[in-house]
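Late entry, evening session. Most of the bench is empty. Finally got around to the prediction I had been postponing all week. Sequence below, unchanged from the version circulated by S.P.
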Amino acid sequence: MKYDFDTLRDRRKTDSCKWDVGDGELPMWVADMDFATAPEIIDAMLERTRHGVFGYTRLTDAWYDAYAGWWQRRHGMTMDRDALVFCTGVVAAISSIVRKLTTPNENVVIQTPVYNIFFNSILNNGCRVRENRLVYENGEYSVDFDDLEEKLSDPQTTLMILCNPHNPVGKIWDKGTLSRIGELCQKYHVTVISDEIHCDITLPGREYVPFASVSETCRQISVTCIAPTKTFNLAGLQTAAVYVPDPFLRHKVRRALNTDEVAEPNAFATVAAIAAFDHGGEWLDELREYLAENRRAAALFIREEIPQLRLIEAEATYLLWIDVGAVGSGRAVADHLRKTTGLFVTAGDVYGSGGEDFLRVNVACPRTLLRDGLGRLRDGIKSFGRK
């Protein structure tokens, strides 16, 4: 490989949210990679740093072109640059959009188990969560469309937040599924926020389908949240975008982001995004191969060493979704793992209905850390339930 994903970088005492843990603990929870970002991005940021002046920053043609070019090359979708709006983060955008497009006590539909911060964005704005629980059968996930239509048809439902690809189950939604979701949302006058932040972290040879690319219906009723942050490990730089093709909806979204003051880039936000999308493709391809091998190694280890657990096959993200129901609840197992082995993973119940028997484990790390984490997982499962 041209790029180095094996070097261990000590992240303790770097103000890292992920690594703010006790001595001897191994954090494999929050979706934050333990790899340095692409050298091309670092070089661009160093060049910007050497200039020495960090005043107010505006968006340039290069920023719009970087997003549009990446989605055309990597995902086959043509973007209208006028439909792109800068924001400081996907979560910030979702919360602002929920606040603008709903009124208190209206319903927002999400498909659980799903990224837990969706709950915060809904509840903090005085709205009600309506869970369209995914169907889980034989290790596979699918959409319960009868239940979805029932929830969308409620006149109090005005918004749906879609996770595409889906976090935490790692599902890439196919065109047929997305098309049907779009048709139902149009039928019941529901706007879709599509969180596509994990879209570039797919298995080699697998491609995700942008919701807005599926049909004119999906295009006109949706707000797509995108960013280089998950892909290139840049979350701390506060750089993202929303893509809103419909002009009327775009006006509302722009007002939401500007009212909440999350529409202005810092001095590094555009530099990093442009470098990532214009020069980070080769790095990303090698990263995907490395993550795929981590996933394969974890699957083999679990199958041979911890057969009572079931790893859900995933097509996207760098997160393992592990069924521990044969051993105990995800919460009890996660607490036991941290207490007895120092392994810090996420209990699935935080992702809503359907997550109670699961753990989410982040494997975006060098192989040495992965082996350490898997060993701790095995040891913790072996001791779980003993008096």
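Two things to note before I forget:
The two ends are 47 Å apart (CA to CA).
The chain has two domains: 26-39+281-383, 54-278.
Will write this up properly tomorrow.
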